[in-house]
Amino acid sequence: MAAVSLSSSSIFIFSLTTIFLFSISSWEAAEAHPISTLINKKLYNTLFLHKDDKACPANNFYTYRSFIKATKWFPGFGTTGSLATRKREIAAFLAQISHETGGGWATAPDGPYSWGLCYKEEINPGSNYCDDTYKQWPCYPGKSYKGRGPIQLSWNFNYGQAGKALGFDGLKNPEIVANNSLISFKTALWFWMTEQKPKPSCHDVMVGRYVLTKADVAANRTVGFGMVTNIINGALECGIGSDARVNDRIGYFKRYASLFSVQTGPNLDCANQKSF
Ligand SMILES: *[C@@H]1O[C@H](CO)[C@@H](O)[C@H](O)[C@H]1NC(C)=O
Ligand SMILES: *[C@@H]1O[C@H](CO)[C@@H](O)[C@H](O)[C@H]1NC(C)=O
């Protein structure tokens, strides 16, 4: 709904003068430079070479169409900053969701980093990820808030908040994240775009908008792909030296950045960073 009214307003603005186009909002940036110009279907299929293999439980779920449609709900995504910044943000996002859903192994066909988007839900969850100290996001009896979708959305408080932001009942119907590919991609982009204090948003970090705080400096956190890993799973993966999970994320990012013809930027790991 919002997308429809905003696109007509941007056409109106465009007909008045193009000068405003660059200053008004990221809506106009998204309209003028859709991310489909940076990632077409061919590149998408090259990044995710095996997502539709029979061996992948998510085969035929994570469609290009759903991905592009979901990005339209988040007009700042992949539209902020220079061309290189835009490509780097998209590559970083796709790399992180590839680690979360990856089905590769060291000697896998086409290498370990060609197997992103293979899974849509966590296979052997250790719990139902209900933290009942979050009173405002009460767990619904019998429901599991295990990892689902591209970012492997987990925990009642994330399902509750994502559902509220995106218009579904995340607490009562968490399964929809593994059943509806548009909603599924939206949950991953919601997580990417949304600041959850004291963590910044992954988006702000990757577009260079985030300014380090004193706490970051004290924790030896630096801006880059490693900080994004810290936001996503730092409590388990960061500040413990070289870590296979962190290196897997970096492996995807390097392959994708190369396919996007963009540099990865500095600070790829979080080996020496304390978590948030
Ligand atoms: C929805 O996804 C769950 C797994 O999270 C699955 O068990 C269930 O069968 C799916 N329901 C539909 C209607 O596809
Ligand atoms: C901070 O991180 C850098 C790498 O980014 C590392 O070389 C340095 O030793 C770290 N310092 C501390 C105090 O951990």
TrEMBL record:
Domain of life: Eukaryota
Every Glycoside hydrolase family 19 catalytic domain range: 56-78, 183-193
Gene3D superfamilies: 1.10.530.10, Endochitinase, domain 2 (3.30.20.10)
Leader peptide range in chain numbering: 1-32
Keyword field contains Iron: no
UniProt keywords, alphabetically: Chitin-binding, Disulfide bond, Plant defense, Signal
InterPro entries named among the record's database cross-references: Glyco_hydro_19, Glyco_hydro_19_cat, Lysozyme-like_dom_sf
Residue positions of the active site: 100 (proton donor)
GO biological process terms on file: carbohydrate metabolic process; cell wall macromolecule catabolic process; chitin catabolic process; defense response
GO-annotated molecular function: chitin binding; chitinase activity
Pfam families, per the entry: Glyco_hydro_19 (PF00182)
Name of the featured protein: Glycoside hydrolase family 19 catalytic domain-containing protein
Organism listed in the record: Rubus argutus (Southern blackberry)
Lineage of source species: Eukaryota, Viridiplantae, Streptophyta, Embryophyta, Tracheophyta
